[in-house]
User: Which sequence fits this backbone?
């Protein structure tokens, strides 16, 4: 099943989300801060990230921007978790794929997560196809170069 990273400075929130996701069969990795999340991303590549908007230190917006700026993590689907409507636009502008309101509805969490995971699979397939086509182009160019010689 998919690996989901949950980033929230509130332990009760992390544990609650982890319980919901574990019951649905997801593997869950937890991070208590933005710094911890970025450090964990150097070791694992989750299939999606649930990211709290407001955290001390590196907030969710900055973490999201850094994830999007890194070519190794830029395509990981991110759902930003926020309690304020005005933060939703900021979250999307920072690179979030979706957002959830606090307090979180478990059914809404499940549905949105399934959607971003499907999108993530499609993006991964497109990236692999793009890389394959690029390799074919290189081989074709090399073949053409050799034929000219």
Assistant:
């Amino acid at each position: 099943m998919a690996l989901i990273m949950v980033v929230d400075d509130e332990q009760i929130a992390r544990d609650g989300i982890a319980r919901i996701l574990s019951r649905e069969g997801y593997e869950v990795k937890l991070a208590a801060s933005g710094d911890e999340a970025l450090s964990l991303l150097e070791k694992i590549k989750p299939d999606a990230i649930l990211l709290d908007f407001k955290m001390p230190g590196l907030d969710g917006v900055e973490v999201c921007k850094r994830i999007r700026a890194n070519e190794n993590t830029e395509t990981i689907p991110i759902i930003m978790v926020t309690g304020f409507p005005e933060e939703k636009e900021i979250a999307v502008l920072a690179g979030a794929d979706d957002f959830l309101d606090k307090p979180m509805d478990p059914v809404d969490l499940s549905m949105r997560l399934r959607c971003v995971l499907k999108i993530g699979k499609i993006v991964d397939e497109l990236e692999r196809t793009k890389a394959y086509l690029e390799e074919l182009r290189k081989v074709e160019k090399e073949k053409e170069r050799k034929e000219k010689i």
